[in-house]
């Protein structure tokens, strides 16, 4: 019994007859022959594989008549060689990825150090239908194998079988002649020895001449078949003779690639394709000719003729030295155009890069989790969302460790429900970075399943929504504050009016004056709050219209803020370029300045002087309001123009909705200007904005 690693019957029913057919060819254990070696080499080059074998399957072993790429190996165990499978079927046997074939799991050539991944074997079929061996190609990388390639391999296998038939025919013919000569020698033994020898010599010479004629005819037929194979090959092939690189043979595929016809045959390559002389790829041809060593190129860029111009193409190619007919050296070019693949790959890489840029720009992080091991393959942004650097390891347990404990079970439950229902899970939860800061994460993910329907991976995306959470919180705080701020003056106004109503019939007293003043103050506060709300609503709905005109800035500053001047407590000092004019909405700019001055009065109550300064900077006017108050902390400055932001200054609470500076910033932005603040604790604050001097066209 032979060893069998395939887990299936590898002995055909007609194996006894098959072995008898193999033996009649008298080819087992014979030395290597150039005709078979050349066919194996050609096969390896055409399909661009490292290994090509002509194998003959005996009872317990496989004999390699030709071996390209397998070192000095002469044979293999039938129970381990994939060629044993190739003689079971008249079709070509193909394993595009051996690791995916159940019958090859235990095969040592696949599972062992040899690392076979791709196999294609065409059976060698005798004239009476017996499968005695294979022409096979082997690679250590998985690869696809088209029907057209199968046809080429089958054609080459037919050429190998033809060579075997020619070989046995020649042997039989020689043997027959030897037997005939021996018989003649015995029958004529009594004749003259010299005449017998002369007759025998003449006969042998005649037979040799006949055999030579037959062999030459067979060689011509074999060469014709070989040229037909080249011509019909979908792979671009050309043969160049001598160091002059005369184009001896070129199939239609390579002629189409060159944008030439058969008129180039017989011409030196540099004359047929003048543009190729200036390209690096041409220089390798002479190096291959001189060294006798092949040269390989991958995705080489070429400029080839295309009508009256040149076009750029990408090719994978081989320059292979071969033995010439007259004993010299010729070169064979085998090339495959991969322009579309290269362009598609570059487009995919470009698309991937664009997606990465888009994800980075939106601060979206992505990951893929191996649910069995907890190992995650994450983008840099994904790690950053949890407070990790791109160099650090960050896996599934680390993710849950960052999560605030009371949220962990809920998130795990959502993930499990998404796995069970093959749905998308969505969650928002806070995480604690290692520096102690709290951040909010918005996460979405979906499971991926194996062929058995078991979830084995989870693909997800996250975004840091801390800012939006803070915004929502500020908005909620704003609604609470707005309710409170409006309630206070309304309550005060209502109380004053109720008291006035009670004493309306009584004589006029200081109490009447006090209640009226209280009512007016409440109305003023309500008016300010309502104006802020109305302006905010106009901004949100895009209805804040600008009525622009040309005006002198200093005149506007001298007329604004009269309510502050009339109190007499603060001095408003206008400085700078008092003749500077701008094209803007004077009413809205007045509103911005009033807001700045009101803030100076509110937060810098001890600053008796408030400076209103006008500067010209390039094509812009810069207007600033400077106080000499306590200043604003540095951590507050970036948020002053945010919507709903309110300052608690020196532990004092001030009234307002936190909308004033936000509305100011929107007004200035709609003027195509800039707004900002500069402040230092103990040295006062300067609020400023810029306006274009001329209308934008």
From TrEMBL:
Residues 177-232 form a coiled coil. Residues 425-477 form the PAC domain. The keyword Phosphoprotein applies. Pfam families: GAF, HATPase_c, HisKA, PAS_3. Residues 351-422 form the PAS domain. It catalyses: ATP + protein L-histidine = ADP + protein N-phospho-L-histidine. Residues 481-695 form the Histidine kinase domain. Gene3D superfamilies: 1.10.287.130, 3.30.450.40, Histidine kinase-like ATPase, C-terminal domain (3.30.565.10), PAS domain (3.30.450.20). It comes from the Bacteria. Keywords: Coiled coil, Kinase, Phosphoprotein, Transferase. This is histidine kinase. It comes from Pedobacter antarcticus 4BY.
């Amino acid at each position: 019994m032979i060893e069998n690693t395939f887990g299936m019957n590898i002995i055909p029913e007609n194996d006894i007859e098959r072995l008898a057919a193999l033996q009649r060819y008298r080819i087992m254990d014979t030395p290597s022959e150039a005709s078979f070696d050349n066919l194996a080499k050609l096969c390896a080059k055409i399909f661009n594989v490292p290994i090509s074998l002509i194998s003959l399957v005996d009872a317990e072993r496989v004999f390699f008549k030709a071996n390209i790429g397998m070192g000095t190996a002469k044979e293999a165990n039938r129970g381990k060689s994939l060629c044993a499978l190739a003689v079971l079927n008249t079709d070509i046997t193909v394993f595009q990825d051996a690791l995916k074939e159940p019958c090859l799991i235990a095969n040592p050539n696949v599972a062992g150090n040899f690392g076979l991944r791709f196999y294609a074997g065409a059976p060698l079929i005798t004239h009476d239908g017996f499968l005695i061996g294979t022409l096979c190609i082997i690679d250590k990388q998985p690869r696809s194998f088209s029907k057209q390639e199968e046809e080429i391999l089958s054609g080459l296998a037919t050429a190998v079988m033809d060579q075997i038939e020619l070989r046995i025919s020649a042997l039989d013919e020689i043997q027959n002649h030897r037997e005939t000569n021996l018989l003649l020698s015995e029958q004529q033994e009594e004749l003259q020895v010299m005449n017998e020898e002369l007759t025998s010599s003449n006969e042998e010479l005649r037979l040799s001449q006949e055999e030579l004629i037959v062999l030459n005819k067979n060689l011509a037929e074999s060469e014709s078949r070989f040229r037909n194979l080249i011509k019909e090959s979908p792979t671009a092939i050309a043969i160049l003779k001598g160091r002059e690189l005369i184009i001896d043979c070129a199939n239609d595929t390579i002629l189409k690639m060159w944008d030439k016809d058969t008129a180039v045959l017989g011409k030196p390559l540099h004359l047929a394709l003048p543009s190729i002389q200036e390209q690096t790829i041409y220089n390798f041809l002479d190096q291959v000719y001189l060294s006798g060593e092949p040269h390989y190129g991958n995705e080489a860029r070429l400029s080839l003729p295309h009508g009256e111009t040149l076009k750029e193409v990408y090719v994978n190619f081989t320059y292979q030295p071969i033995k010439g007919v007259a004993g010299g050296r010729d070169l064979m070019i085998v090339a495959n155009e991969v322009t579309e693949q290269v362009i598609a790959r570059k487009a995919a890489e470009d698309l991937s890069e664009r997606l990465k840029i888009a994800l980075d720009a939106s601060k979206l992080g992505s990951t893929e989790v191996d649910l069995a091991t907890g190992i995650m393959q994450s983008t840099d942004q994904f790690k950053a969302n949890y407070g990790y650097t791109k160099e650090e390891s960050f896996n599934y347990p680390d993710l849950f460790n960052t999560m605030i404990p009371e949220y962990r079970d809920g998130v795990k439950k959502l993930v499990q429900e998404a796995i069970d229902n093959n749905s998308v899970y969505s969650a928002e939860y806070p995480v604690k970075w290692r520096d102690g800061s709290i951040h909010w994460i918005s996460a979405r993910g979906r499971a991926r399943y194996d062929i058995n329907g078991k979830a084995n991976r989870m693909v997800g995306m996250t975004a840091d929504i801390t800012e939006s959470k803070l915004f929502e919180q500020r908005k909620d705080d704003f609604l609470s504050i707005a309710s409170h701020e409006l309630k206070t003056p309304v309550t005060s106004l209502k109380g004053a009016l109720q008291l006035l109503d009670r004493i309306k019939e009584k004589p006029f007293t200081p109490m009447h004056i006090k209640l009226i003043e209280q009512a007016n103050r409440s109305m003023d506060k309500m008016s300010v709050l309502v104006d802020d709300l109305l302006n905010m609503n106009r901004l949100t709905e895009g209805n804040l219209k600008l009525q622009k005109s040309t005006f002198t800035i200093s005149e506007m500053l001298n007329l604004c803020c009269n309510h502050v001047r009339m109190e007499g407590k603060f001095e408003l000092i206008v400085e700078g370029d008092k003749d500077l004019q701008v094209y803007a909405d004077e009413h809205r700019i007045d509103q911005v300045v009033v807001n700045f001055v009101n803030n100076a009065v509110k937060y810098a109550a001890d600053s008796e002087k408030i400076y209103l300064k006008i500067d010209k900077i390039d094509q812009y006017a810069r207007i600033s309001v400077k106080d000499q108050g306590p200043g604003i902390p540095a951590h507050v400055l970036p948020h002053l123009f945010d919507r709903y932001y309110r300052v608690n200054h020196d532990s004092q609470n001030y009234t307002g909705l936190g909308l004033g500076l936000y509305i100011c910033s929107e007004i200035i932005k709609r003027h195509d200007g800039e707004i900002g603040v500069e402040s230092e604790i103990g040295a006062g604050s300067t609020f400023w904005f810029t306006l274009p001097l001329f209308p934008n066209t």
